[in-house]
Amino acid sequence: MKKVLLSVRDLAKHFGGLRAVDGVSFDLHEREILGLLGPNGAGKTVCFNLISGVYTPTAGEIHFAGIRSDGLPPHRMAALGLGRTFQIVKPFSNLTVLDNVIVACGVDRYRSLARSFGGWTGAAVRKKAVELLERVGLADEADRKAGLLPLGHLRRLEIARALAVGYRLILLDESFSGLREEEIAPLMDLVARIRQDGISVLLIEHNMRVAMKLSDRIVVLDHGRKIAEGLPGEVARDPLVIEAYLGRGGSSRVA
Amino acid sequence: MHLFLEQLLNGVAIGSIYALVTLGLTLVYGILRILHVAHAAVYTVGAYLGLLFFKMSGSLLVGCAGAMAGCAVLGIAIERLVYFPLLKYPPYVPLIASIAILLALEEVCRLVAGPYILTFPAELPFPSLNLLGVDIPSSVMGILCITAGILAFLWFLTTRTETGLAMRAVSQDLTIADAMGINSHAVVSFTFAVGSAIAAVAGILVGIYYNQVYSTMGSVPAYKTLAIIVVGGLGSVPGAVAASLLLGIAETLLIGYAHIPLPRDALAFLAMIAVLMWRSEGLFGSR
Fold first, then answer.
1. Is A36 in a helix, a strand, or coil?
2. Are the C-beta atoms of residues A159 and A136 closer than 8 Å to each other?
C-alpha cells in the first residue's frame, strides 16, 4: 500500500449560506496524480484554497506530510513543500521570468528575516531557478519581463514556481485551459515527468481528455460534495458523474 | 553666483528631507496601495523622540537610534492595528483612518510635550566645507550625506537582497507571494518599520536644521508629500526621490532666490496640478 501524503477528511467550507465544499474526503498518495473534477461551481478551487491555506475550513481536517495542516497560512504550507498554480495566471509581471522563480526558491530563507537579508541571491539559488526554467522549457525567456509572456509560457512559468516551492506536492489549477492543441501534449509530458521525479500532483482540469489520460485516480465533486472516486475509466462510466455533467437523461458518454 | 550655488545646495538639502519623508509614503503605497497620510505624524513623533533621547543621553547618535526604533514600532503598530484589518474595504476607508491617526498623534504630541516650539540644540557631526568659495554649513553636509547613505541602503535592500525581492513580489501580489512561501504580512510590517525609521531620521534632521520641534510640524509635509508622490508617480521610489529634489530646488530658487511672489508651499500643488493635467502617471510612473 502506498503512503498517504495528503488526507482530506469531511472537509467543509461555507460562505454564509453557501456550502461551497460540504463534507469532502479523499486521500492522495505519494507519487500519485489525482484528478479533481466537476462542473463549474462544484467547489474544486475552494478545495485547493483550503488545502493550500488560503481559507480556513468551516469543518473537517486536512493532514499533509504527516501533520495536521488545516488553518496553517499559505506560506507555512509552502514551507511544508506544497506548491500551487492559479487558475487565472498571476505572474509578478514587473519581475523577470528568472526572478519570478527565484522569489519562489526562497522558502527556507524567508523563515528568518536575518537569513534572507544576509544571504542575497546567491549562485546556488540562481542555478536552481535556471534548472527549473530548463525543466519547463522557458530557459530562453529568463531575462524577459514576465508580463510580456504569452499564456502558454505563463502556465509553464506558474508550474516552475510551483515546483520551486513544492518538493512534495503541487496543485495545478486548470493549467491546460486556454492552451492551443499543440501546447497541450508537451505540457502533459511535463506533468508526467514531474511525477516520475517523485512529486505528487493534484489536478483540477476541465479538459476531460487531459484529465482522463494524466490522472491515476479521479475524484468528482458536484455542488460541494464528492459524487464519485476511482480509476478514470470507472468514473467516466459512473451514472452520477454523467448526470452531473450532462444533466438527467444525458448520453452514456462523457466527451 | 556664489549666492546661487548656496541656494541651490540649500534646495538640495530641503529636497533631501522631502525625499526621506516621501520614501516611507511611497514604500507603503507600493506595497498596500494605501495613502499613508499618518506617515507625517510618525515623522513628528520621530523628531520628539529624537529630542527626548538626545536630551536624556546627550548623544545625537543615541537620540537617532532611539527615535528610529520607536518609530519603527509605531509604524508596525499602525499597520497591524489599523491598516491590515481595513484592507478588505475600499481605499478611502484606510485613508480616512490614516487622517484620523495623523490628527490623533499630533494631539498626543501636543498634550505630552506641550503646545510650545521646542528647540533642538544639536549639531550634526559633519564638517562644514568651503568648496570653490561656496560655504557648505555642517547641517547641509549632514543632511546630504545622511540622505545619500539612506538612499544607497534602500537601493541595496530592494535590488540586491532576497528581502528586497520578496518586497517587490509582495507589492505586486500579496496572495501569490504567500503561495510562494513568503510571509507577506511580515514583509509588509518590515516595510512599515523601514519607512517609519527613515521618517524619524527626517524629523530629527528638520528639527536640527530649523532648530524647531512642534506638534504640527507634520501638517504641511502631510499633504506636500502626497503631492510629491503624485508628481513622481505613485509607488515609484526613484520618482519620489527625483520629485522631492526638484521641488526642494524649485522652492528655494524660485522663491528664495528669484523672489517670485508665491507662497512657498503652493509650488508642490502647482506641480501636482500640472502633472495631473499633462502626465497623470507622474514623472516615473507607468500606466
1. strand
2. yes
In a domain, A155, yes or no: no
Interface of A with B in 74-113 (CB under 8 A): 74-75, 78-79, 83-84, 86, 90, 92-95, 99, 102-104, 106-107, 109-111, 113
How many CB atoms neighbour CB B235 within 10 A? Answer: 21
Q: List the CATH number of the domain containing A192.
A: 3.40.50.300
Suggest the residue from B163, B167, B236 to mutate for an interface test with chain A (most A CBs closer than 10 A): B163
Is the distance from CB of A26 to CB of A53 less than 8 angstroms? no
- Residue B256 has what pLDDT? 77
A73 to chain B: closest CA residue: B178
The whole domain housing A216 covers 4-92+167-246
> In the 3-class helix/strand/coil scheme, how is B52-102 assigned residue by residue?
HHHHHHCCHHHHHHHHHHHHHHHHHHHHHHHHHHHCCCCCHHHHHHHHHHH
**Chain A interface includes B119 (CB < 8 A):** no
Low-confidence ranges of chain B (pLDDT < 70): 285-287
Considering only alpha carbons, which residue of chain B is nearest residue A114?
Answer: B163
B35-78 pLDDT, tens per residue? 999 999 999 999 999 999 999 999 999 999 999 999 999 999 99
Q: What is the pTM of this model?
A: 0.87
Residue B158: predicted pLDDT: 86
Residue A110 has its nearest CB partner, among B160, B179, B181, at B181
Out of B165, B186, B190, closest to residue A99 by CB: B165
Residue extents of the structural domains in chain B: 12-118+131-218
In a domain, A197, yes or no: yes
ipTM associated with this complex: 0.82
CB of A52 within 8 Å of a chain B CB? The answer is: yes
